Each structure stands twice: as C-alpha cells, then as structure tokens.
C-alpha cells in the first residue's frame, strides 16, 4: 500500500498543508492564513481542522496517514517536537507543537526547522534523491541551512545546528539581525539585498532599482540582468558571500551536492552562475570534482513535500 | 580480556608507535625517524619492524592485538586506508598504506587523517570521553580539524571533510598555503604566527620577539605574556581568527565541546582566554550555555593514543 503523510509548511503569514505520497505526489492541499497573533493554541486548532477537511475531501481515513511532518521556522527540539526559539513565531518558545498537534489529530507528528525540512525534501524527492552528503541553503527573508552528512540530518547536540546563515563571511561586514557582523544572512538574504539597495540609493540615484514602486530582491536581480550598475554590484557582493560560505561548507562537509532553494533561487542563472564563477577562488583544488552546486528543482510545493519528507526520514 | 591495539602517529619527521590498552594506558612505545625521502615502502617496512620489536619487548603476541590505527597527515580514504593527498608525505598520493601495513604485520589496519585521530582520541580518552558532538582543532604547523557529530566521525563523501583549517575567516586576509586568502590556517597556525612576526619586524624592531635567535610561536606567545606590543597584536589577531572560526563551527555543528590541541595549545591561558573573550561577539545568544571550549589534556601521548582510538572507534 502506498505510504501517505501530511506535510505542513508553517510560515509566519500562511500555512500550507498537503497530503503527500511516498513518491512526492500531492494528493490534496490547502493554504490557510497562520494568524500568529491569535495565539498558538488557536493556530494549531485551525491547522487540525484544515487537516480534517483535507482528509474528508480526499476520502482518506486518518488511520491511513503514517505521520504529520511540520517544517517550522526557528530552532526546534526535534526529539520532542518543541519550538525552542523562533523569531517569526513570537511566544512559541518552549511550545510543544508536536504534542499538541498529536492531541488534536490523533496522528504521530514530527517537527523540524524549515531549512532542515528543505534538505530532507531534496533527500526524499529532489534531483539528487538519496544522497548521503548534501548541504542545503534556503535564501529568503533570512538564510537557512540544512545538512545531511553520512545519511544523517545533522542537528547537533541540542537541535540548534545547521545555522549556516549565521556563519560569518565578512567579519567587518554589515550588521546581521543576530547582532554579529557579516553573517551570510547579512549579505545574501532578501533583507540584506534590500538594505544594500537602500544604501546605494544616494550613490546611484538613477539606478532602475529606484524606479520600481517597491524595492525587493526580484527588482534588484531583474535590474542586474539588464546591466544596471548598482544592481550588478549588489548581486556580485551577495554571490561572493555565497561563494565564500559555500567554499567553507565544502571544506567542512565534503558534500556531494549543494542545493539552493528559497525565493531568491528564482533569480536562476544570474545567481547560480555568479556563485559558480567565484567558487574556485575559495576551494582547495583537492576538492575539484567532488561536488555539484545547483538550484532546487522542487520550487512550487517544496514547503509541503519537504515537511512531508520529515516523516519519511524519521520512519525510514 | 583487556583489548589492546597499536597506535601509530605518522609524522613528516618522526613516527611514534605504541601498544595501547582500552583505557588509554600505553604498555610500551617507541619513536623512530620517518625518513620520508627513503620511499614509502621502506618507511612502512621500518614501521613493521618497530611494531615487532615492541611486541617482543612487551611479551605480547600479535594475535592479541585487535588492530593497528594510523594517524596520518593529509586526506585519507578511510574505507580503504589509502593516502589520497598529503603535503607532508610527497609521492604517497594513492598509496594503500593500510593494505601494505596489513601485509607486513598481519594485523588489521585503519588509517585516519591526524586531526580526525585527534578528535577520536578525545572521544575515547579525553576529558569529555564519549561525547557525541565534538569539534577538535589541532594548532601546529598547519590547522587541522576533526568533527564528531551524532556520534559519527564526520569525513564527508570522499573522506576530505573536516578541513576546518581551510575555512575562510578573513576574505581579504593573508594568503594561505592552499592558495586562498584568510583561511584559519593562514592566521592561527605556527606558520602564520611566524609570518606575521616577520612582517612586524620593520614596524616593531625593538620587540623582544626579534631578540630571540629563532622566531617561533612559543617565542611570540612568551613575549605577549610579558606585554610585548608586537607579540600581543599577533596573538590578538590569531585568537580573533580562532574565535570567528569557532563561532562558525558552533553555528554549524551545535557541538557540546570544542577541544583545542597541537603544539600551539601549549600557550595555555593566553590562547584559550583570548578565544573565550572574543567568542561572544560571534555567537548567537541562543547558543549560550550549549558548549564548552577547552584545551586538550592529552598532551604528551595524544598522537599515539589518538591513533589507537581509531581502532576502538572502528570496531565499537
């Protein structure tokens, strides 16, 4: 019988829920507003209701579901499914998310950090499915990291590991949200790109970036693609920071594959080629030919299937 | 019956060999010149003879030895015990060291990179024996790294992983032997400290560093301890680089313990306090209280016992 799980991509704004089969096929899905301000109990109850509706719609009994996987922002204690700390889910610190979702649904529940869920999704359904040595980076509002090494999802002693976005690539670089200077996140996240664009507005007032009603990462990448100088400088800086950081991860993990996802990965060739061009300066030649670096191909439903893969990983 | 192994600390200049018991006790040991220039076959034959002598001296039959562990410089394929690449052992690339040592001795042999062997030694016999999440740094001529994560010695897909000394902490910093700029090794190895001292000789000709007949890391640390300005600047720079790198490893691995060994660790308090003071600037507060950072207490025989621990790890 085909194994089915529920994948939940818990976001600060919206939550995506889907019934997912072992091959990654989404049987049914639903997007609901998260409404964090209404409190964690209400949020989880609403998620429980949405799961019920999905099961009814698809005619699947909850007993046929082998588990629920939740990809959540923040640091997670994945043994207990407790949210340890999450900037996007204030007052969820110490919240036993898995335990409450289990009470509401009667289904065994596993929770992982969303970047860990991303790399598990690659491990389960991605281009390099089954690879035992992969590094994942999610480039969005922040920069998340997930690592599979020797077939194990590496989370460290307390579940805080894999914070690749907060490794430092420019010790004298811009201040990061975490308080340090020059973290990868302070140079290559959407937030960093927007901040840098704002700084450049005085020096490059004619840049096409500032002709746009809103400054965001897409506007900057689009302008760079058209040859805009300010945008090109910003993209160069972000891709250089990524090349330095990825070079470090290659030396540390000797991975087979580095996979990049998240909203910024939609920048496509401009992003990946920028990184690939700069990478050789930061990697010892003995590593040549040991790794690939690519953009994730699981764009559309990556959040749901990644969350679903947590269950397949934990029960494999 | 007590389990006994042979540990071999293979160095560019000398090779230390010992019979080691499960509790780390060295029954008998011997130091022989490596004489790399005489060729790898001669070197291994000489090691085989030394092992025989040790067994005869201690009245132990080779059948009572459960294995030989070799800590070797360079990148090692630990599945086959082949030296992939080693700057200190030229023309050993592709050499099946384990296979040849097995032929010579008749004893099952395991080979690991010497920095991996260092952290396995900590895992087997160190202050935090048995910890499942440890990062080791060996500060000597170069900077080596070894990582145990989730109880596994992390070596990556081809055995090249754990090259912590070649992660970049100052992208505009001094050139490293590997060709990159600002690797940890280019800032915190004995070589880096000596290079920096030489650069400072024009600006600080009266520094007590230059009163010494030879410039080495010990001279610099001793001068810094006496308040010498040039020496203090060098030690500050090295400990800052270590703090940045260790901060990165904490975010990546969320280890319980970071243990520092190698010749430079003899600088003691000046080194460890310098790192500890600077570290908080580079680590997110959510990691507070999750790790310890200490100097290895296994100084004298660390090479032999570390090599021996490879066998205990592989057969555990």
TrEMBL record, chains A, B:
<dbReference type="InterPro" id="IPR043129">
    <property type="entry name" value="ATPase_NBD"/>
</dbReference>
<dbReference type="InterPro" id="IPR000600">
    <property type="entry name" value="ROK"/>
</dbReference>
<dbReference type="GO" id="GO:0016301">
    <property type="term" value="F:kinase activity"/>
</dbReference>
<keyword id="KW-0418">Kinase</keyword>
<comment type="similarity">
    <text>Belongs to the ROK (NagC/XylR) family.</text>
</comment>
<dbReference type="Pfam" id="PF00480">
    <property type="entry name" value="ROK"/>
</dbReference>
<dbReference type="InterPro" id="IPR049874">
    <property type="entry name" value="ROK_cs"/>
</dbReference>
<protein>
    <submittedName>
        <fullName>Transcriptional regulator/sugar kinase</fullName>
    </submittedName>
</protein>
<keyword id="KW-0808">Transferase</keyword>
